[in-house]
Design brief:
Strand content of chain A: 25-35%
Mean pLDDT of chain C: 90
Largest interface: B-C, 97 and 86 residues
Structural class of chain C: alpha+beta
Number of helices of chain C: 17
Low-confidence stretches of chain C: none
Radius of gyration of chain C: 27 Å
Shape of chain A: globular
Shape of chain C: globular
Mean pLDDT of chain A: 95
Number of strands of chain C: 35
Largest sheet of chain A: 4 strands, antiparallel
Order of helices and strands of chain A: HHHEEEEEHEEE
Largest sheet of chain C: 9 strands, mixed
Oligomer: heterotrimer
Structural class of chain A: alpha+beta
Helix content of chain A: 10-25%
Distance between the termini of chain A: 33 Å
Low-confidence stretches of chain A: none
Chain lengths: 154, 714, 713
Amino acid sequence: MSTRKTEWSGDVLRDLTDGNLDLQVLLEMQQSIKEEDRFETILKVEQEKVKFPEKILVPIGEHLYVVQKGSERVVKCACGHEFGDYRQTWKLNAKVFARDTAESMEEVFRGPRKCDPSWMVLREFYCPTCAALLEVEAVPPGYPYVFDFLPELD
Amino acid sequence: MGKLKDRALQREKDLSEGKRPSLILKDADPIKWEVLYTRLLGIVQEGRETARLISASPTVREFGECVFCVFTPEGEVVAFSRGILLHFASFTATIKWMLKNNYEDDPGIKEGDLFCNNDPQIGGAHSADVATLMPIFRKGELVAWVGGLTHVMEVGGTEPGGTPPSALSRYDDGLMVTAQKVGENDKYFRDYHIMVSRNTRDGKWWIIDDLAKLGGMIKMKKALLDVIEEYGIDYYEKATYEMIEEGRRFAVSKIKTVLFPGTYRTAGFYDVLNSEQPVRFQKDHYMHFPLEMTVTKNGEMFLNYDGLSSPGYHANNASLICATGLHIYQLLQEVLYDGMFNAGLVQALKLNIPENTVLNPGIQYACSCWVSAMVAAGSCFQRALSRAYYAKGFREEGLSGKAITASVFAGGVNENDSLFSIVNFEMNCSGAAASSNKDGLDSANSVWNPEVNLSDCEPFEPLWPLKWLGRGVQTDGGGFGKHRGGASISSLYVIEPPVKFIESGCYMSGDRVFASAGTMGGYPAPARYRYTLVDTNFAEAAALKQPLPHEEGDPANPDFARLLKGTLKRGSGQSASVQFKQYDLIYHASGGGGGWGDPLERSPNTVIREVNEGLTTITTAENVYGVAAANTPGNGHWTLDEGKTSALRNEMRKKRLKKALSSKAYMKKERKNLLEGKLAPIVKEMYNDSFKKSARFLDEFKQFWGLPDQFSGF
Amino acid sequence: MGDDVRQRYYCYTDAGGTFTDTLLIDEQGNMISGKAPTTPASLDDGHIASIRAAVEGLGITLEELLEKTEVIAFGTTAIINTVVQRSGVKVGVLITKGFERLPSVGRGFQNYSEYSWSDILHSSTHRHLKDLVSYENIVGVNERMDNTGKAFIPLYPDDVRAAVNKLIDMNVESIIILFLFSYMNPSHELQAKEIAEEIVNSRGKDIPVFTSYEVAPAMKEVARFNTLAVEAYAGGIAKKSLAKSEKRLADLGCKMKLQATLSHGGMMPASTAHMVDTAMSGPSGGILAGKYLGDVYGYRNIITSDVGGTSFDVGLITGGRINIKTEPVVARFILSAPCAEVTSIGAGGGTIAYLDPFTNRLKVGPQSSGSMPGPACYGNGGENPTVTDADVVLGYIDPDYFLGGRMKLDKAIAERAIKEKIADPLRISVIDAALGIKELIDAEMENYCRSLISSRGYAVEDYVLLAFGGAGPTHVAGYTKNTKYKEIVITPFASVFCAFGGATADYSRHYLRGTSVFIPYMADEQTKLKAGETLSSLWSEMEAIAMDEMKNAGFNLKEVEFEHLAFTRYGGQLDEISFKSPQSRLTDAKTVDAFVEAFESEYSNVFTATGKYPQAGYLTLHVGLVSRVTKPKPSIARKIVSKSTHGGLKGKRIAIFDDRKPVETSIYELSLLSPGQQVKGPVIIEHVDTTFVVPPDYHVDVDEYGMLFLRRA
């Protein structure tokens, strides 16, 4: 544990949000005391990164944000694609590909490393615009979408 | 008489009503208070270090699988040593159980008594966790408890190694000592150790560990009484309750600072494939772990397992104490690592684990292989935490799905008629989960102890007739993603030299299902399995200096099957013990960690580096990571083709949208299947069980799929 | 000192991270020291410069000194620096096929070695160490020994040829060979080496080939590999720099061979030593000095405690023997190289005090402000209050006499740092905060000493505590407050104490050999004889090797003594304890029984008799040999005991002790205290490079060697 509260530069935080922070700096960050104002500073960094004008309220996953759009609060992809009201899972408005056969599983998992598609399927959720893979659900056939996160905004 | 019992009950009542001590002593003199805490930490560490030196078992010596504590008279943890931290809740439960069951009257609790417990429903996680507890008296009054726990290598039961996977009920789990008085005047009863040595395959593990714990606790007792003398009993007692309260306050304040408030949901799954095992009830099991984690603005945390599956007649149930301990340990490891380690943390986390579930089973159920159940649950908790960290901006923290942690065990009779029984503990070397900024660590992670350690082969091989032909890192072994999950250790054994008898098996499962899910676009870690090759020509091949297998190679066509004659069998990752003979081969790997983020966003240079280091196959590089590479003829070295790579990645993105359905279309198709009941029987059974357990789950299920009101199951 | 033409000198130099210290000792035991900056690029510059600095005080020329030098020794950490900076040579590896990942996976605990507890617990901070050898330069070879030394896979010579050719094509500068269980049967390793050397020669290359059997024939493949790798990776560089020093000294007229000081506290001619054995030579000095004092005073059990700027280093001498660690962790790598056991925690003058933001609890360390910016009172911009700042605020350290006035400290800044960062937020006075910092760090250090001693199974009451290092004497009363040591001793030459220790070392070398000898409970005659035979033959093999090396090092073989060690455990245990075998040859059942008894009595010492478990039998997995040529030792000057009682009094100042009341405290000059003198606390005894704090209710007795004994009234 570092004893000092470190002020992280904008560049460091940008790399962090890109997921590419230098591993040594990352280690120092992990070992430092967590700052009170991280949320505010990260929000600034994220807002600068995205192209859309709406105000980011909270990042909820890679590429995904809850933003203030007029009176509504909607989920948006970094590419600008809109997934609708944040109180329901964005997955309902994503593109879905289910690996539910041995063949489609084999594309990713070799031989015995596959699961049994009659026990479990992989649901890949893509952004309909930028095609980013946003979530992979590993669930039994017929399992309702998992509503990963409902932020408490008020 | 019964005085402590009443105090314990009163204390529980107070806490449940939110009556907590204010920090009077700390505020009056924070330094004196802090120094006392430092002294207490010194005491538990002294106990642990002593035990580690005396201990018998590799688990304690090499892997530090032991832990020591100081408790309040009611059994709440005041100070906790390093070690298997999941046992946070476990001794507490044992002490409380003894008090509530009027041990003060009968058998009585007096100075110098020693109590042993390895009953997982009362303390520890499985019967391999053997605890010794010692009450500390001052002027005839019980002022504290000290306790030590070690993971013992052999406790009897259906199979060697201490954690039999073919146990179907508690009565198969091994020798159970339930909160029993096993010594007086700081000395164990001789008949107790006779019982142990006659009811386990190799009594030395248990007995020497008992001696080790005693050595540690006698030291702790002396040191603790000195401290109490110095500070005065009144100050000591008040201060310790304040420390527990401070522990709680720390937890609340840190959670508030680093986790975003909201409701988080994850679902984990786990399988037990007993239909293919030589066991009494040859039935498969499919377990469902639905977790809802709520974090409030005031830093309260609530975990709700409403809808959790029923326990079953298999080895993979976990006791409520174990489940509680593991969740707290995980919180400690991922969020509260820089705080005070005591009972206060337990108060900071509210858990709803319904009765008669796989994490809160009735007395009759087996818990020997609890780890898999806790991996499934812990994996859910870990992924929920990672989103809460992520949203708050702490991207340096947060982890994807936890790895299954698995090991090979063996037992039998040596040529000299001595018995052996041991587990290799490579479960210590699973892959760590990926996180938003880095890959998971390869082969250096476990679910219950941060100080993971892999034993060298040289001290281990004399203990059993399994020889490593190779010990590496599983290729493509972690969940794929922008950052990949850590890969597991990967071991190939040959049975050599001959022994009079050898049986061997392994745990844990997670092979019909992916137990270690990915996060935010990352894939789960691969399914698990064990390969065996029997009746081999190993000896001839070696004598003729022919190529020999040393690793798995292509999982679909493994090296050992390619290079040697013999009968290949793919077994479950959790395989009950069966007999082997000289020159049979066993291949086994622990689990990998879940991946994080879209694989097409992984740095192509990293992918190629790992291809050249044999950690990633070129097939995966192309099919999953969309990385194109050229192979330099001759040295087999791959080099990145940047142009082709970006083209390939664009191509793959297009393909994604082409083959994918709109959510609406997909749900329509799925709904049809459900209405037609197109589900495997085992899946129906799993759903029906959760429907019965949770009206809420049933309602949400119906609502999501738009099923008719009268729908109540498959 | 220096005018007598017949005078002989010991010249001992230790190259530390920042400074290279030289200590000259004459035959009467008078000491004079010199300091020069360490010169990492070429250590010989710093080496010569620091000897020069010492000579100045002597009134003779460097040439004259070297001409009169009896023993000249150099302790260097060159090898560690090379490893830490990963600036070694390109190493190629031949390893048992299937174990190519061994170097990168290593032992799990290397991923968090030298971590603080909260970082260990916070396991997503764990990292694999950066490899010394890149994966592409590791080639597997078909072969396999079992744990009894029987080959169940023969060596595939073609594999070796292909591997060596590949490594040469990869332009490796050094080749190492590690096969499993080679310590039980080295034939495969030696065969492979032969083939490798053939190919290297036939291709006209100059690439050294090392085998694990030759460098570290001990059990546990990871430690053995690391040891071998470090020697191959960094050893050559260290050897060169020592050779350079030796050459320059010879040119200046030095007749003696330069000795390299070794981690286990011996020394060997630099030209013959394994460099990996020098890695921990620095810290071993203090414990050697402790051993030496122990011999002078007849103390059998000593705990040495050295409080420096960033770390608290503790060593144990038990039953007159320095605890030897066979698997030290160096630069986070676990090695198999015998090493005087000195363990550390992050606690020292520079250790930072702070408030935990979530609970406002005062925490001290383990982080240090380092030398830059250093404690707030250094005035280099350090904002965090440290232990030294507390010592200044409490009046223990005179801001104008820190390091004998070489460095001026700023008390005002120290007070401000403590006030702003600790006192005000806690709503306590600056004095209370400073005392708190002191008490906490003292408690930490006390815990550490206690648990080190008792985790070895011994009672603190049997130990004499020795305090040295810059801040040792300042805090010794604090970190011994609740422990009843037999005696607490402070040396008048605390700063050069380690250097002095180095000078007391004998010419010696430790050998370790893995084996597997099991003596069952109630063993029959036959089994005992067989066991005795195996052990005896291993000892005689090692004796032969040792004699050879002593001969090459130019020693008179008549003077060589041996110590025969065994590392034994009860069957099934995983940790051996080392003990001295009563006989060097176990020729009959009786001598074997004596051997077993020796183990049992050492075991009961360490773990109390309750830990005994003879039913499990006795398993010996390592045997050791210490070869030694006793070297004339420097003595410490003895002075006439006078009855003067107030020598050295040089003033008074306000200081604050546990009762929190400022008291006017007498200040003494350590060098002016006279033998036989007693001073009653509270007093502060100052010295050029340390400050000795004697609280109320304590007094200090000075003896004829000038040693100070801290005693409670």
